[in-house]
């Protein structure tokens, strides 16, 4: 069966350090991988998208890598701040064509300690 | 306008009631989605509308009935729900229903069925 796995344990990190989250998937061949941020009781907010032929993508303090051989994406928050505390969701899209079903992982909570 | 607006924010309904959830966007997005999210779980896709036509129904029970009156509006009609249907219902939109577009989510409707 298809699975998108993210660490269920919260990541507690000191302010200023780099937070690294992992997303592993099985029985998917995604053309795109997306990352979202979700705060309690709110909808997810789109952060970054990376294509299967891209190794790395950056946006401000965020960096995403995508390894289709390992079937894994890493999500980094550099110089973390307390405002970065949230749950981060990985999502997979099968391709550039229509009838896409964007599937989400359970998310990984990040707590940045001042 | 870069938002998806969902109303109401909270809804409590009895198992015999009929109610509707509303979603609106004015970004010109041609794909709109309903997701259901239970606590500590990932969002689960329910319905996809592409160019105002229902393109995906993820085997959702008929007590949930979607409607897309025009390209800016999406409704979810609820009837004879069960307590286990209590969840956060999220509406989202994207430029098109393709994997290379990020989704814009609303803040959700917190539904409680009593």
Q: Could you walk me through the main structural features you see in this protein, from its secondary elements to its overall organization?
A:
- The complex is a heterodimer of chains A (114) and B (114).
- Chain A has 114 residues and is an all-beta fold.
- Chain A is 0% helix and 54% strand.
- Chain A contains no helices and eleven strands.
- In chain A, strand 7 (62-67) and strand 8 (72-77) form a beta hairpin.
- Chain B is an all-beta fold and 114 residues long.
- Chain B contains no helices and eleven strands.
- The termini of chain B are far apart.
- The model of chain B has no long low-confidence stretch (mean pLDDT 95).
- Chains A and B meet through strand 4, strand 5 and strand 10 of A and strand 5, strand 9 and strand 10 of B.
Tell me the number of strands of chain B.
11
Biggest β-sheet of chain A: count, sense, barrel? 6 strands, mixed
Number of helices of chain A: 0
> What is the terminal separation of chain A in angstroms?
41 Å
| Shape by Cα distribution of chain B | globular
Task: Give the amount of beta strand of chain A, in percent.
Answer: over 45%
Largest interface (CB < 8 Å): A-B, 30 and 30 residues
Which secondary-structure class do the elements of chain B indicate? mainly beta
What is the string of SSEs of chain A from the N terminus onward? EEEEEEEEEEE
Poorly predicted parts of chain A: none
How far apart are the termini of chain B?
36 Å
* Oligomer type: heterodimer
Give the C-alpha Rg of chain A: 14 Å
């Amino acid at each position: 069966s298809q699975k998108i796995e993210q660490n269920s344990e919260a990541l507690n990190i000191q302010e200023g350090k780099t937070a690294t989250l992992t997303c592993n998937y099985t029985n998917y061949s995604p053309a795109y991988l997306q990352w979202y941020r979700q705060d309690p009781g709110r909808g997810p907010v789109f952060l970054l998208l990376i294509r299967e032929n891209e190794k790395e993508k950056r946006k401000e303090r965020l960096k995403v890598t995508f390894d289709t051989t390992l079937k894994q994406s890493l999500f980094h928050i550099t110089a973390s701040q307390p405002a970065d505390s949230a749950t981060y969701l990985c999502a997979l899209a099968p391709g550039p064509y229509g009838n896409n079903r964007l599937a989400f992982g359970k998310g990984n909570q990040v707590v940045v300690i001042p | 306008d870069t938002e998806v607006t969902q109303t109401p924010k909270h809804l409590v309904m009895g198992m015999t009631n009929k109610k509707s959830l509303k979603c609106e966007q004015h970004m010109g997005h041609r794909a709109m989605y309903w997701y259901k999210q239970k606590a500590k779980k990932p969002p689960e896709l329910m319905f996809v509308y592409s160019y105002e036509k229902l393109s995906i129904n993820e085997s959702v029970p008929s007590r949930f009935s979607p409607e897309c009156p025009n390209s800016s509006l999406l409704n979810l009609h609820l009837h004879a729900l069960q307590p286990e249907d209590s969840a956060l219902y999220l509406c989202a939109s994207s430029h098109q229903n393709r994997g290379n577009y990020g989704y814009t989510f609303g803040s959700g409707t917190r539904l409680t069925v009593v």
